[in-house]
Amino acid sequence: MTAFYEPLGDNTFRSTEHTVGPWGPDSQHLGPPSALLVRSLLALGNPSSALARVTFEVLGPVPVADLTVSTSVERPGRSVELLAASLSHEGRAVLTARAWRIVDSDTTAVAGGDLPAMTPPESAAPMEIPDFWGGGYLAAVEWLSVSGGIFTPGDAQVWARPRVAVVDGFEPSPLERLFSVVDSASGVSSRVDIRKWYAINTDLTVHLHRQPVGEWVGMDARTTIGPDGVGLATSVVHDVEGPVGTTAQALFVRER
Question: How much is the pTM?
Answer without folding.
Answer: 0.95
